[in-house]
């Protein structure tokens, strides 16, 4: 009778119809062996030559899809998988950005000049009167 090596899994060859997969050779495929033992999270013992993991811990029951289904992550919100960040689009060249900024600044300055031209200007007589009033106020203040 073969038992599953994963903690909290009570599957064995007599009671379940799942398949059992052996661990990779520790000497020949050291990286794969270490990866699988890390995923299982058992510190007190190491898988031996006859240790097996049932197909219930592999996505779709296939060994090639990777060891990822355990009781400890059964209540997780997100499914396990390759969580690669989304690809980003290339930013436009700086020359295009500076050209856009220049056109925006030019259009703003043109609108500003146009706004200033449309403001009503005081007549020459009003300017002269305002300066005379200012001069008289200063004389009275002293």
Describe this structure in words.
It is a single chain. Among the domains are: 20-73, no CATH class; 101-140, no CATH class. The chain is mainly alpha-helical. The radius of gyration is 40 Å and the shape is rod-shaped. It has a two-stranded antiparallel sheet. The longest helix has 25 residues, at 94-118. 38% of the residues lie in helices and 4% in strands. The termini are far apart. The protein has helices at residues 30-40, 94-118, 124-141, and strands spanning 20-22, 52-54.
The general outline is: rod-shaped
Structural class by sheet pairing and helices: mainly alpha
Topology, number of strands? 2
Low-confidence stretches: none
Cα distance, first to last residue?
A: 115 Å
The average pLDDT value, as a whole number, equals 73
Largest sheet report:
2 strands, antiparallel
Work out the strand percent: under 5%
Specify the oligomeric state.
Answer: single chain
| Sheet with most strands: strand arrangement | 1-2
What share of residues is helical? 25-40%
Cα Rg? 40 Å
Tally of helical segments:
3
| Helix/strand order | EHEHH
